[in-house]
DNA sequence: CGTAGACTTCCACTGGACGGAAGGACGTAG
DNA sequence: CTACGTCCTTCCGTCCAGTGGAAGTCTACG
């Protein structure tokens, strides 16, 4: 390219992607300076690239002058085959579950050692929860995360148990040995639970979804407490999870071999 | 840049965006050659850029060698503030409507002269419909489209009525005068209907959603026929639409002034 | 009114981007 | 088996698009 390049080897494409990826859930809008810093680009370079991205609709500007991801990226992003098959097939079942319980319902897959929420239904009367579609939450503090980890390949599980387990609430379990026990228990019981481990006042139950024999996703539900109706919830979850699994069994269409790789 | 440039003025950024935008609903996966052609780039240039985008996770490759939008773009796209406020607020109401009717429920906004579907709920037992989230369908053949156009500014409506109205089924209305009459009728009645105008065997009813007095979106429902329960559906839709409108009234947070601009 | 912080514009230098060409890999028709 | 077509991949000489420091603008604040 030119002049005094600060970072030889950085291509325009990588800079462009870096700018787009600078946004995340905690930072859905950024100022020019923040964007430049997060993408690790000189201000004037960032300014030029951002101006063009904005002109093209890949970024947009709010009234206040901050930048946000543009409508064009929304269009494009929706076309990514991120578990489209599971999501599409599961959708009606999620609605049924929601209708039956009026609690927040989650569909998640494993992404590295975190639970990636690929769908969510939440009502006016549901317990408030932190997850959104696209959120990634720690596996050890969520019902779906524990289920997915319990059924994960051994190396993944080993790595997950040996990496630091952040305490999120006073009830978050951070001892690897206790989690190890829980994971074994989950395989026996067929479901996982959390009790205020992710957020206070929220408990969850989750079960695996299987395509043939392989666990491909997890289905979870968030409620204020588990005392009364854990059994009823597990039953409802299992009905839905089996239904989804059965529907998944049939179809065969072009799809990625592996899970999307982490950044 | 260099050598013999075929298209002086085309920047790397614009080429990158062109490649990403080459995908659409009808073409969610493309071969290298198709991508190059659709983005209007020389094959080798496209190849180089695509290879890097793939390396960065902005694109991905299927088993068969075709390219698809990458998981990274999914992450980014979800952060675009495409009517996030309306969508978030409306979500629980859509579920209620779905639970009450078990029919496909739609939330749409006007995008140029088409209806952009920003949310959708569809069950196992619903009438099959063509729309997906992110779909853009012609205004004159959809319930939500007619509602939005009836309440659109005069210049938009004029332009819509004077542009070609494609026949989609034998029942699609393509005479501007008849549509004009319908639009006036919609303002009086407070709802719009379609009868197999978009797809055979599917009818729809739709009502406007208002923030204060301004129509910001439309809520629609798709059913096999309207004879029996049009009144009941309109009532249910209005309850939900008013609820959404009321909830929208309150909030104030950073948001784009205008609708996302078309490509 | 000076200082600070964020944004915008300018422009001379140069190395990253360009793309034609050539070389594989695969399928299929003769 | 050879020839041809289609698609993908790699190579490399040319050169202009991209770079980023510097200077200018615009608010906001004390």
UniProtKB/TrEMBL annotation, chains A, B:
Domain called IclR-ED: residue spans: 72-250
Annotated protein name in UniProt: Glycerol operon regulatory protein
All residue ranges annotated as the HTH iclR-type domain in the record: 10-71
The entry's keywords: DNA-binding, Glycerol metabolism, Transcription, Transcription regulation
Presence of the UniProt keyword Transport in the record: no
GO BP terms: glycerol metabolic process; negative regulation of DNA-templated transcription
A Pfam family hit: HTH_IclR
Function of the molecule: May be an activator protein for the gylABX operon.
Protein origin, superkingdom: Bacteria
PANTHER family: HELIX-TURN-HELIX TRANSCRIPTIONAL REGULATOR, ICLR FAMILY, HTH-TYPE TRANSCRIPTIONAL REPRESSOR ALLR
A GO molecular function held by the record: DNA-binding transcription factor activity
Gene3D superfamilies per the UniProt record, alphabetical: 3.30.450.40, Winged helix-like DNA-binding domain superfamily/Winged helix DNA-binding domain
Signal peptide: none
């Amino acid at each position: 390219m030119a002049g005094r390049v600060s970072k030889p080897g950085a291509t325009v494409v990588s800079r462009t992607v870096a700018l787009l990826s600078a946004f995340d859930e905690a930072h859905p809008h950024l100022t020019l300076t923040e964007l430049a810093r997060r993408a690790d680009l000189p201000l004037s370079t960032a300014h030029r690239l951002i101006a063009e991205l904005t002109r093209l609709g890949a970024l947009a500007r709010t009234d206040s002058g901050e930048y946000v991801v543009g409508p064009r990226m929304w269009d494009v992003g929706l076309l990514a085959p991120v578990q489209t098959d599971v999501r599409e097939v599961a959708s009606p079942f999620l609605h049924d579950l929601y209708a039956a319980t009026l609690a927040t319902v989650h569909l998640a897959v494993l992404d590295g050692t975190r639970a990636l929420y690929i769908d969510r239904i939440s009502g006016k009367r549901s317990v408030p929860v932190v997850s959104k579609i696209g959120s990634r939450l720690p596996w050890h503090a969520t019902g779906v995360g524990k289920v997915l980890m319990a059924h994960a390949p051994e190396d993944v599980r080993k790595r997950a148990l040996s990496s630091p387990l952040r305490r999120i609430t006073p009830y978050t379990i951070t001892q690897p040995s206790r989690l190890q026990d829980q994971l074994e228990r989950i395989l026996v019981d067929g479901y996982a639970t959390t009790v205020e481990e992710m957020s206070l006042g929220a408990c969850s139950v989750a079960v695996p979804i299987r395509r043939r024999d392989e666990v491909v996703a997890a289905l979870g539900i968030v409620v204020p407490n588990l005392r009364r109706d854990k059994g009823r919830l597990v039953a409802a979850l299992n009905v839905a999870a089996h239904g989804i699994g059965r529907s998944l069994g049939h179809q065969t269409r072009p799809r990625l071999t592996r899970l999307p790789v982490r950044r």
